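Input record (one chain):
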Amino acid sequence: MEILTQILPFVFLIAIMYFVIIRPQNQQAKKHKEMVEALTKGDKVVTSGGLIVEIKKVEEQFFAVKFNNDTEGQLVKDAVARKYGDEA
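The corresponding structure, as predicted from the sequence alone:
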């Protein structure tokens, strides 16, 4: 019985950490992944570097993007922070 009373606080702390830290992070990562997978040609996104770009082509691991009328490039899907116009 003494072992149970010694282990119970640790189990309680681990449960609190799961519901306060780990679970919300996993949910946020899942929402972000779904958002990136749903992006299509013509969508505007904000990169993790703060650039606002328009998607021209969706590839497996990259987006072909347009910075302005003359400049185009590629963007790694992991670098997309959010869709432009969505609330932060």
